[in-house]
Design brief:
two-stranded antiparallel ribbon, 5 strands, 3 helices, single chain, 2 domains, 3-stranded antiparallel β-sheet, HU Protein, Chain A, alpha+beta
Length: 95
Amino acid sequence: MTKIDIVKQVAKQVGITQPVAKKAVEAVFEAIKNNLAKTTTPVTLRGFGTFFTQYKTARMGRNPKTGKPVEISARLIPRFKPSDNLKDLINRKDS
């Protein structure tokens, strides 16, 4: 599923035009990205999951082509933890 597919579904479900739905979807994604870039505060969407950043310490790695050691710098990486509701929905068994 791509962003345009999400826009189409939002437009259909809410009963708005696709350009308006596109602005809304992009605004949500921008709000999540901006929060993760500027703060360490997680973004929690109840019933869906939590977006957060995780600190990775500096470490030594290896260049796969040459085999030489390479220092990998410390950084923040984005993470997502699905909610229990989302996990249950995905793993639901229809008997």
